Amino acid sequence: MRINLLGFVLSSLTLVGIASGQAAPSQSGEKTSLGASVPSSAALTPSNIETQPLVRGASTPDSASPLPDLRQLPPAKATLIGGNLEKLDQVRDQLTLRPFGGGRMKILFDARTHVYRDGKPASSSDLKTGERVYIDTILDGTTIFARNIRFNTDMSGGESQGAVLSYHPDRAELLVRDALSPEPLRMHLTSSTHFLLGDRSASVSELAPGTLVAVKFDSDKDGRDVAREISILALPGATFNFAGQVVALNLRTGLLVLTSVTDRKTYEIYFDPSVISVDSDLRQGADVTVLTRFDGTRYLAQNVTINSPSKP
Questions:
Q1: pLDDT per residue over 231-283, tens digit each?
Q2: How far apart, in whole angstroms, are the C-alpha atoms of residue 265 and residue 260?
Q3: Which of 77, 97, 162, 170 is positioned for an S-S bond with 83, CB 3.0–4.6 A?
Q4: Ramachandran angles phi, psi of 220, nearest 5°
C-alpha cells in the first residue's frame, strides 16, 4: 500500500507539471498549445503604450460630456459703441459698458470675440475696468454680443483729457468733463501748476469753458487730484487737421476713430452722414486726412479725404 500510494502522488505531480507547462506563455510571444497569442511582458511597458489625444467635440469612452463646438455668429451688421468699461465678469462672459453718450449696457462675449490691445491680438483677461474701449456689437437673438473689442494702453495713470466746465479761483479748483467719468473731475491748481498752449506758456485765465485740455496730475496726502501740468489742446471754434488710420467706423451714428500718425494717439471724430458725402473706400484700415472743427465738446468733421483705401 505504501508503494502504491507513493506512485499515485508522483503521478499526480507529473500531470500538474505537464499542465503548467502547456498553460504558461512563451517568452517570445509565440502561440501556446491553446492557440492564443500572448505578448511577452516587455510589450506591456509604458513606453510602448500608444495614446490618442482627445479632440474637442469628439465622443470617447472616457468622455461623458464632450465640449460642443461654438456655432457661427449670425451675419448681422455690427454697430460700433465706445465707452468706459465699468465691470467685467469672466465667469458669465459678460461686461458692463458706460457709453460715451451716457447710460449703461450689458454686452456678452465668448471665445468667438476678438480682442485687440494697441492693434495686436489679445484676450479678454487683458481687459481692465476703467479702460476706454471700442466694441463692434451685433444682435444675437435678443442679446447684445461683442464681435470685436479694441483698447489702447498708452494712456498712463495720472492723466486725463476733457473739456473745461468751469474754474473757481476762490478754491483754485478746475472742473473737467472727461468721457470716462460719469462725474466731472475736480482738479486742484497750485503755484506749481504749469500751463501750456502749443509751444508757449499759458495762464489759467485762458481756460474758458469748452476749452479742451490734457491734464497730468498727482494725488496729495488728502486724496485730492492736484494738477501738475495743463495743456490747452483746442479752443472752441478752432480747426484741426488729423491724418492717420481709421481704427473704427460707424456710418450710422457718424463716428470715426482715428490713430494719428503725428502723436500715435486715438481721436474720436464725429460727422453728419447726411452732410458729408462718404466715399465707399472709407472703412476700417483706410489712411485718411480729416479737417475738423472743435465745438467745445468734440471734434466735428468738415471734410474727409482718403489717402489710400484699406486692403481687402
A1: 998 888 889 899 999 988 888 888 898 988 887 778 889 988 777 766 677 88
A2: 6
A3: 97
A4: -90, -175
- The C-alpha cell 502749443 sits at 198
Alpha-helix residue ranges (DSSP H) falling in the chain: 2-23
How many CA within 13 A on the CB side of residue 214? 11
Determine the Cα–Cα distance for residues 261 and 6; give it in Å rounded to an integer: 108
Q: Which of 163, 210, 159, 169 is nearest to 184 (CA)?
A: 163
Q: Which amino acid is at 2?
A: R
Task: Select from 3.30.420.40, 2.40.50.320, 3.20.20.150, 3.40.50.12780 the CATH code of 239-308.
Answer: 2.40.50.320
For residues 136 and 128, what is the distance between their CA atoms, to the nearest angstrom?
18
Q: Which CATH superfamily is domain 79-151 in?
A: Copper binding periplasmic protein CusF (2.40.50.320)
At a CB cut-off of 8 Å and minimum separation 6, what does 93 contact? 108, 109, 110, 124
Cα(146)–Cα(164) distance, integer angstroms: 33
Is 135 strand, coil or helix?
strand
Domain locations in the chain as residue ranges: 79-151, 159-234, 239-308
Kindly give the pairing relationship between strand 225-234 and strand 194-197. Answer: parallel
* Closest CA relative to residue 167, chosen from 188, 190, 183: 188
Query: Which residue's C-alpha cell is 465668448?
Result: 110
Length of the chain: 312
116 vs 103, residue with greater confidence: 116
